[in-house]
Amino acid sequence: MAAKNRVVVGLQWGDEGKGKIVDLLARQASIVARFQGGNNAGHTLVVDGKTLVLHLVPSGILHANITCAIGNGVVVDPEVLLKELDALADRGHTIHPKQLLVAEGAHVILPFHRQLDGAREASLGDQKIGTTGRGIGPTYEDKIARRGLRMSIFVDDERRRNHIAALLPEKNRQIENWYGQAPLTIDEIEAWAKPLAARLAPYVTDTPAVLHQATQAGQSILFEGAQGTFLDVDHGTYPYVTSSNTIAGAACAGTGVGPTQIHQVIGVTKAYTTRVGAGPFPSAMTEEEEAKLRKIGGEFGATTGRPRRCGWFDAALVRRAVLLNGATDLALTKLDILSGYPALQICTHYADGCAPTSAEALAKALPVYETVPGWTEDISGVRTWADLPINCQRYVQRIEALVGAPATLLSVGPGRDEVIHRSVL
Ligand code: GDP
User: Fold this and answer.
1) Which CATH entry fits the domain spanning 6-104+208-239+246-265: 3.30.479.30, 3.30.56.10, 1.10.8.60, 3.40.440.10?
2) Could you give the maximum distance between any two Cα atoms of the chain, in Å?
3) Per-chain mean pLDDT for the chain
4) pLDDT score, position 45
């Protein structure tokens, strides 16, 4: 069979349930590769009834015959990565370096990145962006400024020490003079870095070469996106965005695989909308409706535990996301959560032709709603399209028509098998 390389991305503001979809589709791939973001992502997997939250390791890691790759577009906190590997080992999944490849070109999150992230966000007060404070933004800043520390240097003791020593005076000036915090010493950082580097070194490799070989050998790659389309640094609701490109196109730059090698783009979207962090949210519900949906849907961040803001399905937003990603398919998640609503609202468009182009545009957007009938049946046990209540089918079809892509996967529960395949993906 010819290779089928697929990208899985979120079409909203993240937390769409990508982890589950990747885990599901990973079974058909030889390699699962992450291409952007860092440990600000949170993928919740439920396997054999047990919950496991991964922040950095690609979701396919639980399949013994799959190689996972952390691409050059990802920023890696070595401490977090090794903690995840330890947590997996504790659950009986010891990860061999052949099973997890870390790109030589991936940039490393260092202690001063974390410190600066937290200090900066705190100093912004009301203006804060809502970052997770894990040093991801400052690490991407150093990458773009061409002074970042890449994995290949991190695992080389002499070069790492020299590189960090060269960066440190400027970082300390900011930490001390601007934020009034205690400076870091090179010895402190080295005491942290050296043992981590020694453990990580066997995993660090030329990941593009491995991906090219796999493609040439007819093996399939699944590219796993983190966050969501409207958190993309270029196309999202800037400045309330993450520091990387989250759209499907970034799979190429973030791993070193060319665009002609991508065959399918699966956009994951919830059957409603949620958002964590600051920024405009046109289809937000009333407080009462939000509290209800948040409770039923368990809408609290996997990484931070922050309550998510909840809203009705926003077709104007997802329609644009389908185009930004070139999505060929939708995976519609959490459909089960909407069971029991007598009626559902869908935002079909914004008044006056307003489009979700920026934070300013969204702040002014006035959602226009269509009310559709809901369904009362519990659908979590349904496995075929024909067995879904007719109003649920109509809800899905209306969404497909509004956003312009077929919902080939419907998710009706957190478990791996709680899914309806509408065509063979
Ligand atoms: P991700 O970052 O996009 O992978 O999303 P999260 O893991 O933060 O959020 C998805 C949450 O919803 C997790 O707790 C999943 O187990 C859960 N989930 C995923 N799909 C479904 C679904 O179809 N129904 C229900 N009830 N829960 C789901």
Assistant:
1) 3.40.440.10
2) 65
3) 93
4) 64
How far is the C-alpha of 56 from the C-alpha of 74, rounded, in Å? 9
Q: Which of 417, 423, 424, 327 is nearest to 21 (CA)?
A: 417
**Domains of the chain: which residue ranges?**
6-104+208-239+246-265, 107-200, 268-421
Local structure of 211: helix, strand or coil? helix
pTM of full prediction above 0.90 = yes
**75-91, pLDDT tens digit by residue?**
999 999 999 999 888 88
Whether residue 46 has its Cβ less than 6 Å from ligand 1: yes
DSSP letter string over 349-384? EEGGG--S-SHHHHHH--EEEEEEE---S--TT--S
Ligand 1 close to Cβ of residue 337 (< 6 A): yes
Report how far residue 418's alpha carbon sits from residue 382's, in angstroms, rounded to the nearest whole number: 8
Closest-lying ligand 1 atom to the alpha carbon of residue 268: 3
Closest CA to 251 of 53, 13, 58, 83: 58
**Alpha helices, DSSP H, located in 124-269:** 136-144, 151-154, 157-173, 186-200, 207-216, 250-253
Tens of pLDDT, residues 16-46: 998 889 888 998 999 999 999 998 877 776 6
Q: Is 16 in the pocket of ligand 1 (CB under 6 A)?
A: yes
Using most ligand atoms within 8 A of CB, pick from 7, 9, 16, 20 the residue to mutate for ligand 1. Answer: 20
CATH of 268-421, one of 3.40.50.2300, 3.40.50.300, 3.90.170.10, 3.40.50.720: 3.90.170.10
